[in-house]
Amino acid sequence: MNNTKKFASTLLLTAMLTGCGDTTPPSQKATEDKTAPEASEAGRPVQRADEPGLTAEYAAFRKEQIADVNYRISVELDRESDTFSGRVVADTEIARTLQQPLTIDFTGGEVKAVSVGEREIPFDYNGHFISIAPEHLAEGENQIAIDYNHAYSTDGTGLHRFEDPQDGSVYLYTHFEPYKANRFAPLFDQPDLKARYTVDVKAPADWQVVTTAREEKVEDSPDGRRHWYFPTTKKYPTYIFPLHAGPYVVWEDQASDIPLRLMARKTLAPNVKPQDWFTFTRQSFDFFQKYYGIDYPFGKYDQLIVPDFTIGAMENVAAVTFNEAYVSRGEKTQAQRQQLANVIAHEMAHMWFGDLVTMDWWNGLWLKESFATYMASLALAENSEFDDVWENFYLRSKQSAYRADQLVTTHPIEVPVPNTAEAFSNFDSITYGKGGSVLEQLPHYLGKEAFRQGVSNYLQEFSYGNATLSDFMDHLGRAANENLDDWTQNWLYKAGVNTIAVRYQCTEGKITELTVTQTAPKDHPVLREQKTQLGIYRMQDSIMSRVAAVPVTYSGRKTQVRAAEGLPCPQILNPNDEDWAYVKTSLDDKTVAQLSQHINAIESSFTRLMLWQSLFDKVTDAEMPLDQWIDFALENAGAESNINVIRLISRHLEAASAYAHRFDIPETLRAERLQAIEHFVWARLNSAPAGSDAQKTWFETFARLAHTDEALQNADQLLAGKLEIDGLSVDQDKCWKLIVLMNRQLHGDYEQLLEEELKQDNTDRARSYAITARASRPTSAAKQKWLDSIQDRRGELKLSHLKAAARSLFPAEQLNLYRDFGEQLFSAVPQVSETDDTLYNKAYAMLFPVVCDRDDIAPYSEALKQNPDLMPALGRILKNRRQQSEKCLAMAKLQKDSAVR
């Protein structure tokens, strides 16, 4: 699964290294006992609570009850109804005589009949699971059949139904992770009860039906529908079972002997570029089959671009689903193409790591996601057209991980998951970004071939089965002949990011002493060991070149680096050159001083990228005044030509503008700084090479930052076609971004522009843009309308539309309006949490902004104090916003103090 945004999500146990005896440290055993489901003691019965979800304890008990299970699933679909019907036959091998009822997960449906063999039996159904009394089941083989009905979903889970507003076509797709397969059919919905599936489906005659296997035959039915029959699949868990249906447009291709299909709804199809999709898919197959040493195990490979998808993509076996955001209605930038290639590779990596070999329980969710995050970038770096893959990994995965790891809600990579309700509670940038970054360092630490061999051995041993983190680390340790116990404890079971700094002395132009110092945050005081590379740079013929690269394995508080002695004295020193390590870096004063003069002379664009980031880290860590960074950026950024560095700078300029809006500073000073940034961005947009990715990047930034009358007039004329910038095509999506800007600033005929555009572009994406535009209007009436809709009429909005409104309601420059609605916003927090709807809680949390005033921070503290048991999806965000707001205060104080000096 890729949890981008979106997208993520998506980005790993102890080792038995000797083959005889258990070498797991006692402290680690204790940790593992808390993270995985415990088998019941000597078959001790576990009573299942009459409530939604599944606990780890009960799942372990049910695993003891069931020795094996396979499913035959029959489903009847049509385009008009709000519900569908089905029959599941679960061929279930009971491991021993039952003492407790056997439960079958099924949420929110109607159970029409249950039979065992040829005999219909009584059953209990509480809306969450079906219970079958022990006397109706025998030890050994049992054929359990269930006839049922269920409603289609509209929230992107279960079997989701979408009606295209353009042509009325209906499309269906499934999304089940982590515990949603039982919203489609009665199943034993836990990852360690893998099964084979034999499927048949009745559907409208013009629909395509897709599941794991290609159809054996399709017959016409007397009722005008068609009946699809699919062969039995190989074993895999319920959460990645796919069933997609609708009048999808289909493109076909081949990757060696693997048949490929790509599908999209009819009205989106003209914008799809199948050649990119198939090229990236073939390249990924070529890499993964060689790397793993295992042929692709599932025969064919389908990829479907589906509407209303709530995440980036999902690794359903041989029928992967993707968010429609990966389709552009204009020319993609290379970064966007690379992001598409990355998510294709990410989901394909799961076919082996996640689908072929699956975690025992949801505490292992992070491992498959982290592994796919790392492997996707490795696949692109080794076998694609892109030569800046690791720079993009640094920009996306690493930076999101560093931000998350410094929040009060950070957590270890490996965490306990007591029940399915909490499977996603810690599913964030630690799961994807930090996990993937930690895995990325292992090939440096163990050796690339040892890491690859360990992965291959692991996949071969546990194919079609389940495994744990300790199984994975065991194989890596064996392949490298390394004991990874300490590494596992420090990196996977402890939270927080460390910072390194380099201190050195020079005599006669040579280093005489160099030390790497490591610090840890107060709340997470662990010092780690890892390998980094020190980059030593000096000016040579007007170019700041790397004159030495020093690999260093550091540990503890101080590591003296003898290998650096005698090397040229640095003018600039990058402590994590080429981004080997997962660590923050604190630049020495000499390096910072040199950057103000020579950052554009640095030969390596990757080094420039990292040093620009380190400088902005000083701003957000309240070590450098914001004004100082803005001056530095406006003086130096214009000469930058590398697109990744430009993307980073543009992102930081947007953040700087937001902070300037939040700081309590004189209005004339605020206006001056914001106007300087706006003028700079407009100049870059006009001077960037025609049609370049830099031009597209500066357009995106301009459309978010423009605010003066002059800039808005330029935007208005771009929209009307009265102003042209050489090479800039104002396509449909760019058009909407300018309309959002007009509405956010109440400029010109903003409302008429919106209504006229909706008449021309009646797509679902257009409706989301329109909601964004309306919600962002800086009026009390707009805020009241959309806040009421989010709080009281959420059933009238699709989740994607609700999120569009929530994320745009209170931008940084509208904090005065946020204050007007703060009481209403916070008073609804308990009721929102009580819905127990994770997706709604996540959407509601988008309403809360970072603030920079002590009085504005107080409601966060009060809400958390009064509601200590909020759903994690909401409570975590409130904690983060409070902390981020405190950091904003510290930044504002530094800015104020520097102005006084």
From TrEMBL:
Similarity comment: family membership: Belongs to the peptidase M1 family.
Protein name per its UniProtKB record: Aminopeptidase N
Domain Peptidase M1 membrane alanine aminopeptidase: residue ranges: 281-491
Domain ERAP1-like C-terminal: 575-884
Keywords for the protein's UniProt record, in alphabetical order: Aminopeptidase, Hydrolase, Metal-binding, Metalloprotease, Protease, Zinc
Cited NCBIfam families: pepN_strep_liv
Source species, domain of life: Bacteria
Record field: catalytic activity: Release of an N-terminal amino acid, Xaa-|-Yaa- from a peptide, amide or arylamide. Xaa is preferably Ala, but may be most amino acids including Pro (slow action). When a terminal hydrophobic residue is followed by a prolyl residue, the two may be released as an intact Xaa-Pro dipeptide
One Gene Ontology term of the molecular function aspect: alanyl aminopeptidase activity
Cofactors (names): Zn(2+)
Alphabetical list of PANTHER family matching this protein: PROTEASE M1 ZINC METALLOPROTEASE (PTHR11533), PUROMYCIN-SENSITIVE AMINOPEPTIDASE-RELATED (PTHR11533:SF174)
Enzyme Commission identifier(s): 3.4.11.2
SUPFAM superfamilies: Leukotriene A4 hydrolase N-terminal domain, Metalloproteases ('zincins'), catalytic domain
Start and end residues of each stretch annotated as Disordered: 18-51
Aminopeptidase N-like N-terminal domain residues: 70-240
Stored Pfam families: ERAP1_C, Peptidase_M1, Peptidase_M1_N
